[in-house]
Write a structure and sequence with these properties.
Length: 56
């Protein structure tokens, strides 16, 4: 379970980095990819939180 949570955090961080890099160099595609990765990480994190609620 902790592995999945850390994967979500990693996706969020990677997405933020891509988005910032894309913005800095003016690459809209890279920026959009970063936002997408962040959203995937957010969704994964929400899923894990929901699982935690039902486990307790």
């Amino acid at each position: 379970m902790a592995k999945k949570k850390s994967r979500a955090k990693m996706e969020q961080a990677k997405g933020k980095a891509k988005e910032a890099t894309g913005r800095a160099v003016g690459n809209e595609t890279l920026e959009a990819e970063g936002r997408t990765e962040q959203a995937k990480g957010d969704a994964r994190q929400a899923k894990e939180k929901t699982k935690d609620v039902f486990r307790h």
